Amino acid sequence: MKKITLRGRKVVGGCAEGEALVTRDTISGWGGINPMTGTIIELRHELHGKSFKDKILVFPGAKGSSGWSTFFHTARLAGAAPKAMIFTNMTTKIALGAVVTRAPAMTDLDQNPFEIIETGDWVKVDADNEIIEVTKKGETDHLVLDDLKRQQ
Amino acid sequence: MYLTDEEKAMLDGKEGPAVQKAMDLLVRYGEALGAEKLVDTNNVCGAFVATNRFSRELARGPGGFDAFFSEFNLDSSETVKIPKVKTHTCQLIQTMDPEFWELQGVQKEHLELNKENEAFSSSIGIHLMATCTPYQIGNVPVKGEICAWMESSAVVYINSILGARTNVEGRESTGAAMLTGKIPYWGYHIDENRYGTDLVEVEIEVESMMDWGLLGYYIGEIVGERVPVLNGIKKVPEHDYLKHFGAAAASSGGVEMYHIPGITAEARTMEEAFGSRKPKYAFKYGKTERKKAYDLLNYSAKDPNVDFIMLGCPHASIEQIWEICRLLDGKKVHENTALWIFTPRPIRQLADRNGYTKIIHEAGGVLMSDTCPAIGQFLPKGTKVVATDSAKQAHYLPAIMGVETWFGSIEDCIHAAITGRWSGECK
Questions:
Q1: CB contact under 8 A, A43 and B25
Q2: At B93, is the secondary structure helix, strand, or coil?
Q3: Under a CB-based contact definition with an 8 Å cutoff, are residues B283 and B198 in contact?
Q4: Cα separation of B369 and B136, whole Å?
Q5: Do B152 and A64 count as a contact with CB atoms less than 8 A apart?
Q6: pTM
Q7: Are A95 and B29 in contact (CB < 8 Å)?
Q8: Domains of chain B
Q9: CA B191, B193, B197, B199 torsion: positive or negative?
């Protein structure tokens, strides 16, 4: 089975894997998500109505209000946070938000993640070792099944 | 990240557990940013009130407000006793106006908790300014002053118009900054990052509050977090127009700094705005772009029957309140419509003294303080359709409250308040 490897910089340590949710739109915290469910609520967002709960969230970064970190902090307490985050544009909002979400996070990748990772791909974010492994959709069915079994 | 001996001592717990947790967060945050060091600050504006279910549960639990503050302002699951602040610290906007809590639909128990929360904040030295615009009521940073502020509309104001230096901080980093007097040295603290990136050729006159809101909303949509430089502004705008402009640009995008050569703090000329470098991007703003911003802001609105007119986002100045009084001029707010105006409490006191509060009250409107509908998540009962002169509020209300929202001029809004119907258009 073919895996694609990306290297980058650790933002928050740890290691997690799961299904990718990818957007090229930046995300608002306050007024952008429902922290109790992890659902994107911004009307004109391409992920409007979708939840990042337990996903590997791949996105450019944060925008909008300074409540960003509070909303992702709250999502962690509600059990609705992403499993890991991969983003491309560093700001204080995303840095603080990632820290308080306490999920593995990486940035400054050696390849453009939006050209490699698609929604539904299986992604392992090993932030401690600064490596991301991507298994493309279609080659991932058994991984999704394994994950479901683990959860049961 | 490099730490001084003083900072290392804080991290080692020499100044007690709360300062230790604060420094631990600043180190994690600074390293996430890739910051080289911390910097001193003595001007912190943050959010220190319990606003959601988890924070209220912590504040009501055995650890009380120390537990709430530890989790939400220091990212510490372990409860530590919170000592007095080390820096000048202001509370920003809150979730209710204690004078109008019933009208705002606030639960009695939340009102009680808010009172206790304010007592806790006061006891450690947090000034209860309770506004999104501390710069309107006395916290006016000096050019070059390193600040640690939340509130995107205030950040863009003090960076651009005053030349203070802050990034958009969050609840946890402002909590840590007020206990240590430190914040990661990064972003807009550094000269290099304050120069312009985008040249905006403004080809039409920008004269009213609505014009400036539309311009800000369009620019934010295009530049995201970059630093726009406006060329072609012929008339020096009022401070309220710039307040609106920045709030709009920080809502559609993440603008934290901009230049208008000859007007804002750090650029007398285009050369100074761009640091003698070429713009990375350039675009124009004309009639078509203005219309596009107008349509985006009115994206959610369909029903012309307006239930609620919201004014004062960011919080209104005394000049704006007087303008509203002049437009109301003996008329009455429609029986199916509510008119609420939001202003900092000290400005409301001034409005009381001037009789403006009475004029608004007699017309059927209410002048409120400390909060706004988007932050407090409240609306007059049964509200389905809102109208506002604020691009920021028009951007957020449909998502946060699920209501249709009209955006327009202050004249459009007051007209809708009186007739109960929206008739604004992109003139």
A1: no
A2: coil
A3: yes
A4: 13
A5: yes
A6: 0.94
A7: yes
A8: 5-189 (3.30.499), 195-296 (no CATH), 300-419 (3.30.499.10)
A9: negative
Active site residue A69: no
Q: Are strands A9-12 and A105-107 parallel, antiparallel or unpaired?
A: antiparallel
Give the start-to-end residue ranges of the domains of chain A.
4-151
DSSP bridge partners of A126: A15, A131
- In 3D space, the residue among B50, B23, B106 whose CA is nearest the CA of residue A77 turns out to be B50
Residues in chain A within 8 Å Cβ distance of B171: 67, 69-70, 73
Amino acid symbol at B202: V
* Cβ B128 vs Cβ B92: under 8 Å: no
- Which tokens sit at B4? 């001084």
Quick check: B340 and B309 in contact, CB under 8 A? yes
Assess contact for B360 and B281: CB atoms under 8 A.
no
Could you tell me which CATH number the domain at A4-151 has? 3.50.30.10
CA angle B114, B74, B12 (to 5 degrees): 140
DSSP conformation class of B142: P
pLDDT number for residue B178:
98
Reading the block at residue B377, the tokens are 């998540």
Tens digit of pLDDT for each residue in B133-166? 999 999 999 999 999 999 999 999 999 999 999 9
DSSP 8-state class, residue A51 = B
Crossing angle of the two packed helices B318-328 and B356-363, in degrees rounded to 10: 40
